[in-house]
């Protein structure tokens, strides 16, 4: 397997834009190897578009499994930081995104607030990113317990200084001078906050935000169908899954959804909650795709902010031709994806 193929897989799984390939043993002994001699081209956007040997026709054994490592970046390094207050000249907010894990406060690489009613620190990533994890390095020369109970929040709102954005994780504790990583479940946002929801002092010696650029990107999934390539269309936005209103929804819109999900050609565009009513917000309305777009983000639409005349009885859905794509569920038998910093 070549690097081009690894990069296509990483992008399709929303795990960054590049990857490296190595060999490993199958995690599931005896499982079928579906694909061999896969050679993705620069214009391929999904694995299903890449030339390969016929499905299931290969001479691979359990020792010939492709291990793909998708590369994530510390996107905080190019951001700007602020905090609720600053204790002294050593404790500037920007110290937590200087790329230095020095845990000695007088070394000038840690932040330090005053005693605040709800101390917080925030980095503005300058764009919307899909955040996979956040790594925090705690102070090593004093007061390691100050981080206990801190909340990591990721989102696009600056209400309450960003401290009401979707919750990524709660920090139980971090040993003095140590670093701990917290998974954020692919949360999208421009702002990453670390906030103590109680009176105290907040000190951080490094905050690394691992993820990739997702400005304008709208991750999709299909729910309620009897196979993976049909169902109610849901998209991830502002930290939660929501639905699409069926106003103006037609086969051109369905074509783009099916293409983005690697499910082949669209067979039908459904309205009136044909796959059941969804929950949560209705994020999109009046989608007007031409049918040639690669992603739903490229189509004209009305992006809602919890304010819409639509209800979930108008949830949009699709049926794609991708019956054979169900075999993709078995790809975990030969592809292991590992996210690294």
TrEMBL record:
Keywords: Calcium, Disulfide bond, Glycoprotein, Metal-binding, Repeat, Secreted, Signal. It is found in: Secreted. GO terms for molecular function: metal ion binding; serine-type endopeptidase activity. Residues 1-71, 220-321 form the SRCR domain. It comes from the Eukaryota. This is SRCR domain-containing protein. The keyword Disulfide bond applies. Pfam families: F5_F8_type_C_2, SRCR. GO terms for biological process: zymogen activation. Disulfide bonds join 40-50, 289-299. Signal peptide: none annotated. It comes from Scleropages formosus. The keyword Calcium applies. One of its GO terms (cellular component) is plasma membrane.
